[in-house]
Fold this sequence. Notes:
Layout: H1 10-24, H2 36-60, H3 70-79, E1 91-98, E2 104-106, E3 111-114, E4 123-127, E5 131-133, E6 143-149, E7 151-158, E8 168-174, E9 182-185, E10 188-192, E11 205-210, E12 215-219, E13 235-241, E14 256-257, E15 264-269, H4 281-294, H5 301-310, E16 316-322, E17 329-335, E18 350-351, H6 352-355, H7 357-372, E19 380-383, E20 387-407, H8 408-420, E21 433-434, H9 436-444, E22 449-458, E23 468-469, E24 478-488, E25 491-495
Parallel strand pairs: 10-11, 17-19, 20-24, 20-25
Antiparallel strand pairs: 1-6, 1-15, 2-5, 3-4, 3-14, 4-6, 7-13, 8-12, 9-10, 9-13, 11-12, 16-17, 18-20, 20-22, 21-23
Helix pairs in contact: 1-2, 3-4, 4-5, 8-9
Amino acid sequence: MPTDYTSRDFSSVKADLLSxxxxxxxxxxxxxxxxxxxxMIDLWAYIxxxxxxxxxxxxxxxxxxxxxxxxxxxxxxxxxxYVPNPATSATATVSLYNNSSSNVxxxxxxxxxxxxxxxxxxVYFTTTTAVTVNANTTTGGGTSVPVVEGxxxxxxxxxxxxxxxxxxxxxxxxxxxxxxxxxxxGTTTYSHTTRLADAGAESPVFTSITNANGETVVVLGSxxxxxxxPAGTTITASYRIGGGALGNVGxxxxxxxxxxxxxxxxxxxxxxxxxxxxxxxxxxxxxAPSVRRTQDRAVTLLDxxxxxxxxxxxxxxxxxxxxxxxxxxxxxxxxPQFADFETRDSGTAMTLNTDFGTAGxxxxxxxxxxxxxxxxxxxxxxxxxxxxxxxxxxxxxxRVEVQEGYYQSEVTAAITTAIRALFTWNAVAFNQTFRxxxxxxxxxxxxxxxxxxxxxxxxxxxxxTADHTIxxxxxxxxxxxVLRTISYSGVTGGLA
Length: 496
């Protein structure tokens, strides 16, 4: 009898086995659970069901849309030329006192920390350069020291490099911040690059790959892309471990030294920001195909926007162009992740290279050259501005009717949370229009809301009830929306 290849689960495989048995051995009449032949049929059907399940899962991992494993998604993205955004470190400033009679110099790599509590782990911060704290500094603001989140680690990868091109070494620590890795090859410093294919044959650079287990592998140059370290040299790696949104801590949270220096006291610290977790699988699945379609070159404005979005650390991208005298200039704005933006409540402008941590600095310094290398001849590339302005959004309700049995305060708090979800960093956009229907839809989805009346949606505390478009981003200024206030009046019904 023919084989039915569509039979893949336990029930259908078992039915096929029984059918074949009846055909092959017509005198056999299968019995109940005590029949040993039935036991064997059940076992064969069970094994077939398990095998087919794993075959289906393996097949789905071969395609970006259906892949679910981190390793599969990252490998497919790299095959398309897309480098998933790694975790980035938050930055802060620590103010130090020195109550000793001698100047104290802190070397680069000196660590401070946010102490652990019963419910939180310790968060480490590291100085990036050496700094001297003068003697008898015990008043005023103290000596300001910039720090970046992460714990500094140094290890020797080899004492006798074999000299082959494309050498690889696995770092001993997990959760490595890729951009922090520096290799010392003999007396030469090799720097990290996200795209080794862009490097020249004599460039002392390397790249890294982080797998699904959080292990980081350093990949050295091939001699075509990146300089091959000489045979016999010692290679030492220095890097930070940490990164992520965990490093975004409040003001004065950094209080301790990891290895106390005599006379040094932590006076205060600023709130840290700029820390972000690695790119989500959903985001990678969206961005990787777009980068593939550009073929690593920029012709159209959409190409530029896609390439801006593919640059490591970028989560928001905007491009526009102008040709005032015949020559075309492409203007761009690119921003990294920013935590808890929906509760910012401030219209004060921010600066890309100072308020967004290391990711913001790298975007500010390096993205222009990245785009220029992929542009058509005669096309200039220019960052719109390092200043990010904010377009205020005020929301007010003149009536909130609460259903019976629900507390008014809890319902209005839930409404606030629902509206804030529309103003997270990932939700807001350049040139965004906030529609009345979207606001009311979010509010009416809150449990306990019976009816509401929106009395204001605008750039001030007025009485506009029309859709609101924020100030436009153009060739000279960058704007994003920020939620300033949500106010309520006429709250009725429910429990007061």
